[in-house]
């Protein structure tokens, strides 16, 4: 939901940067790879060290590359299957690193196994959400629905994790992750229901009267 509403705003905001990068010879693929590397390093180095605020800030900055590379590809007229595949694949890597980094810290120095387990739950369910959409689209169905899409999941975990690093009680992060996991599970069900409805409509439409 947030993806669709925020797209216009961020496109206008980052278009000048995207054009500058193209002008100096940077490719959209390079921005995608560097952005993902920054997210992964921030999540798997700073989070396990307990640097929740700085980790979240670094991740947020590099995560914006996901907007910039898309603008660059459209400016070049090169939006296509390869860029889509690379972007989607590296998004999964980045998402996994973020939730894994939170889990590592709270299993170790953070001393809160409940938060760590909730974070792993979000990681697993988030992967299922992404897989459900990819599988649906490979079968010719539409499954870009749900109350907890990627943007909502990332903004929630980065904001509250960062604030936890600044002194917010850890219980707030626990509650956020539990709610996020529940919303993600609902999204999985919503996508399954959407695909089932389309599949049944195809069967009914192909059945002789």
From TrEMBL:
Which co-factor is required?
Answer: Mg(2+)
Kindly list the positions annotated as binding a CDP-1,2-diacyl-sn-glycerol: 29-32, 70, 74
What residues form the catalytic site here?
A: 91
| Chief location bin | membrane
Catalytic activity of the protein? a CDP-1,2-diacyl-sn-glycerol + 1D-myo-inositol 3-phosphate = a 1,2-diacyl-sn-glycero-3-phospho-(1D-myo-inositol-3-phosphate) + CMP + H(+); 1,2-di-(9Z-octadecenoyl)-sn-glycero-3-cytidine-5'-diphosphate + 1D-myo-inositol 3-phosphate = 1,2-di-(9Z-octadecenoyl)-sn-glycero-3-phospho-(1D-myo-inositol-3-phosphate) + CMP + H(+)
Q: Which residues cross the membrane?
A: 20-46, 114-134, 154-183
Subcellular location per the Swiss-Prot or TrEMBL entry: Cell membrane
- Which pathway does the database say it acts in? Lipid metabolism; Phospholipid metabolism; phosphatidylinositol phosphate biosynthesis
How does this protein assemble?
Answer: Homodimer.
Q: What is this protein called?
A: Phosphatidylinositol phosphate synthase
């Amino acid at each position: 939901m947030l993806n669709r509403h925020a797209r216009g705003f961020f496109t206008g905001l980052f278009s000048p940067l995207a054009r500058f990068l193209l002008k100096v010879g940077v490719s959209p693929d390079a921005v995608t790879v560097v952005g993902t590397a920054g997210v992964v390093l921030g999540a798997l180095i700073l989070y396990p060290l307990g640097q929740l605020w700085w980790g979240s800030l670094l991740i947020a900055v590099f995560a914006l590359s996901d907007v910039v590379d898309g603008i660059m590809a459209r400016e070049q007229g090169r939006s296509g299957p390869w860029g889509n595949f690379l972007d989607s694949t590296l998004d999964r890597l980045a998402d996994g690193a973020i939730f894994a980094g939170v889990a590592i810290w709270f299993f170790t120095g953070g001393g809160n196994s409940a938060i760590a387990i909730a974070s792993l739950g979000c990681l697993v369910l988030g992967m299922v959400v992404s897989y459900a959409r990819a599988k649906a689209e490979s079968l010719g169905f539409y499954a870009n629905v749900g109350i907890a899409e990627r943007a909502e999941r990332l903004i929630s975990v980065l904001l509250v994790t960062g604030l936890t690093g600044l002194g917010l009680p850890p219980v707030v992060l626990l509650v956020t992750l539990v709610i996020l996991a529940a919303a993600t599970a609902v999204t999985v069900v919503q996508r399954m229901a959407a695909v089932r409805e389309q599949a049944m409509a195809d069967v009914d439409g192909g059945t002789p009267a």
